[in-house]
Amino acid sequence: MIGTPVASLFGETFNQGAVDMIQLTDSAVTAVRSAMAGAGQEVEGLRIMVEAGGCAGLKYMMGLVNEIDPNDHVFENDGVKIFIEEGSLSFLDGTKIDFVIGLEGSGFTFDNPQAKSSCSCGKSFG
């Protein structure tokens, strides 16, 4: 199931739009699984955050999680656990993440309905 809330580690779930909170396409799931398999250590899942920065004001941050923060909200997408901190939830609600391969390289793209504007590189938004 896409974006199914597993539970936050402190016993609550994020229920507002939880099913559509965050979605990974099949190609994004494949890319994350490949990264997890190649990590060389036990990996719990994928952390997605929003931080101040980038040319549009906010930027996406992603990384593999091997230590779980007890304040994380945890979602599951096709067997991949997604960890999101409380402060990033409202910025990511409804976001669809894809992994694309193109002539200029490959990487993750974000289709975020919360973004009012974005820069041309697609890595930051406002």
From TrEMBL:
InterPro entries: ATAP, ATAP_core_dom, FeS_cluster_insertion_CS, HesB-like_dom_sf
Domain Core: 22-123
PROSITE patterns: HESB (PS01152)
Pfam families recorded: Fe-S_biosyn (PF01521)
Gene3D superfamilies reported for this sequence: HesB-like domain
A GO term for molecular function: iron ion binding
GO BP: iron-sulfur cluster assembly
PANTHER family cross-referenced by the UniProt entry: IRON-SULFUR CLUSTER ASSEMBLY 2 HOMOLOG, MITOCHONDRIAL
Protein known as: Core domain-containing protein
Organism: Methylocystis echinoides
Lineage per the UniProt record: Bacteria, Pseudomonadati, Pseudomonadota, Alphaproteobacteria, Hyphomicrobiales
